[in-house]
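We both want to read discrete structure tokens more fluently, so let's practise on a single case. Would you supply a protein for us yourself, any chain you care to pick? Would you write everything just below, so we can both look at the same thing?
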Amino acid sequence: MSVTAKQHALCESLEVVPDRQERLSIIVERGRRGVPLAPERRIPGNRVPGCVSPVWLIADCTDDRLFFRAHAEAPVVNGLVRLLCEIYDGATANEVLQNEPTLLEALDLMRDLSPTRRNGLLAVRRRMCELALKHSGREGGGGSSPGVHLPVAPEGEM
């Protein structure tokens, strides 16, 4: 299933819940039920820089497909990060790089996240792109970070 199709399916399954806070609770619970990142993989080299709450992210590559696993200590962050992993799990490096995560905005959840959490999600997305570049053999091109964009809610809507 493509990244776009996964986002569409996830959006359809979550948008039946009318309350944004209840949607977020479902995402948190999904994060709790997911397969945890093994403790031995929670090492400094796998920690995502730019996250206030500790977040570890890895990507394994099999048959040119990336399989992301993550763990965050904060329950809300853990749920959101694992949702991003679910979106990109099994994607090619190009699919990871070319498809932005639109699901959170489509579900109207971005406006409820603090600037710190939005910045943390941006750091996770950036790290996913870096891992995709690494596995594609295209890393290190000029030292710039991949162009990553997550929608930002207006300041008055926190």
About this structure: The CA atoms of residues 38 and 65 lie 20 Å apart.
